[in-house]
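Milestone M4 deliverable, item 7.
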Amino acid sequence: MTGSAGMGRTLTRPFGRLCGGPLCWGLLCWGLLAAGCSWFGGSGAQPQTPDGFRRASAELVAFARPEGWRALPAGAYPQGWAAAFEKRAGGQSVAQVAVFQKLPTTSDPYIAAEAAITGVEQNSEDMRRTGQREVEVAGSAGALRIDYRYSAVSQGTPTGETILGTDVTAVDEAGRAATVRITRVQGKLADRVVGQIVDSIEMHPRQ
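Output delivered:
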């Protein structure tokens, strides 16, 4: 998949319908989330890196991910994605985080977030949004978090598992936008950890 925010699991990859494990990169790419501050009155304070986490950085944003998560090589995910990491258990990818930066130029996080998640909705028959709210992302002019869920598919066959997704999409006043997408097999990643990743997101200043 190229130029589409459609990563997600099928899980094996956060970028879209995967294909080989419960998580699919295809859906990961198709849905994204970022956070911002000034546009919604948030603070520009430097986010903290939780104990047991390490920071990762892409061109537009940085975030913290748990130690032990494996970095995926650039050739393992579609164009437009960066800084992808996965948690493995039982020989399979059960959780992923990655950054999607090929979004429309806009200072409105709602427009950017919709562009990011459209691919997930188009490529998952039963995708359902479960929450949406404005969040603070250091260095951003605004950010929106969207949570959703869909059934996992592996090589065209339902696995019986449910994939949970969280997109945080952040924008700045110059119209740069990026989505940090977290996808995971239900029950394989604590909500607390998802929250820690979300709270750690920051947008890099324009050079």
